[in-house]
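Translate structure to sequence.
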């Protein structure tokens, strides 16, 4: 939370940084809903928490937006994700330390761990 925004409160809020964009993940609400389903039962629990992408501000700085785009572009969007190759812990240049899988077609990540 930007100190100036905090003092002004919601109604009078203005953006100190002109580069801020409404958060792409929470759509500017600053909240994120996580749905937890217990395996083997029909129970569905919903938790509301501060959006991890914008730290609950509803706004993304240029850097946060960059991180978001990086993360989004990292994942394979192919329909068939079975054609993937395994990379062991700590050897891949893509920046993921854990073992993971890359798609053979687009070379993006299909699964981590
Ligand atoms: Zn957000
Ligand atoms: Zn792919
Ligand atoms: Zn990798």
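Result:
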């Amino acid at each position: 939370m930007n100190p100036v925004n905090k003092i002004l409160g919601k109604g009078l809020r203005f953006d100190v940084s002109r580069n801020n964009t409404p958060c792409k993940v929470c759509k500017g609400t600053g909240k994120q809903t996580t749905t937890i389903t217990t395996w083997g039962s029909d129970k569905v629990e919903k938790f509301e928490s501060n959006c991890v992408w914008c730290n609950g501000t509803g706004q993304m700085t240029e850097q946060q937006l960059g991180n978001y785009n990086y993360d989004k572009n990292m994942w394979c969007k192919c329909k068939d994700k079975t054609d993937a190759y395994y990379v062991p812990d700590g050897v891949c240049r893509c920046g993921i330390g854990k073992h993971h899988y890359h798609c053979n077609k687009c070379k993006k990540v299909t699964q981590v761990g």
